[in-house]
Amino acid sequence: MLIYTPPNRILCTGMEVIFDEYKMRELPPPVRLTELEKTLRFEENEAKRWPCVFLLGELTELQYAPDKTVLQRIADQLEWTLLFDKSPIVAHEGAFQIGLRNFVDKRQTLIDVSLNNKFHDITRHESIEALGAQRAYECLPMIIGLENDESEGPAVRDTARFVRMRLELLIAAGSPPYKGDVV
Fold first, then answer.
1. How far is CA 93 from the centre of its chain?
2. At CB < 8 A and 24+ separation, what contacts does 122-126 make?
3. What is the pTM of this model?
4. What secondary structure letter does DSSP report for 63?
5. Which of 105, 107, 143, 146 has the smallest CB count inside 10 Å?
6. Cβ neighbour number for residue 37 with a 10 Å cutoff
7. Phi, psi of 2 (to 5 degrees)
């Protein structure tokens, strides 16, 4: 749960988080969502786009977010960022938020990015991790294939190995797959 304090700061489990140099949190949530979407699509400076990915994910935690239309806009923008941002650093944060926020309707995109070497390895690494975060047990054969593919770089192979081990532990513990509720 986020606790709001002075305009540019949030307290999250007792730790201060600062990612708002441009004062986006001062905007009403619907206006903030639109501004974040515009910044992620049109801002040239990746250092300005990067915090917007986190601020966008944070919107899922606000009271107005249970509105399915709002959640879909957030999920769609995160997917767009993953697929089209010019910076692999920003794109990989899109994958992170898709996994963290459990947008399972974007799972196929995570799979496609994981398998496609036209994407930067850091972006593929994060897409694989997001599948693990979503407990995408049905992706285990694909993940094992990436782990064993010697043509893949260490970021992809090592991540696939880790996610395989993590999913196997969850399966052994009887942990059910997530149903798609946004966390």
1. 5
2. 122/88, 122/89, 122/92, 122/155, 123/82, 123/88, 123/91, 123/92, 123/95, 124/155, 124/156, 124/159, 125/92, 125/155, 125/156, 125/159, 126/92, 126/93, 126/95, 126/96, 126/99
3. 0.87
4. T
5. 105
6. 18
7. -95, 140
End-to-end CA distance of the chain: 11
Residue 136's nearest CA partner among 114, 160, 104, 169 is 104
Task: Report the distance separating Cα 25 and Cα 148, nearest Å.
Answer: 44
Closest CA to 41 of 92, 76, 72, 70: 76
d(CA 147, CA 168): 14
Model pLDDT, residue 181: 61
Q: Give pLDDT < 70 ranges for the chain.
A: 1-19, 63-66, 180-183
DSSP 16: E
Total Cβ atoms within 10 A of residue 23: 10
Taking each helix axis as running N to C, give the angle between helix 107-115 and helix 140-148, from 0 to 180 degrees, rounded to the nearest 10. 20
Helices (H) and strands (E) in the chain, counts: 8, 3
- Model pLDDT, residue 61: 85
* Tokens 């070497």, residue located: 117
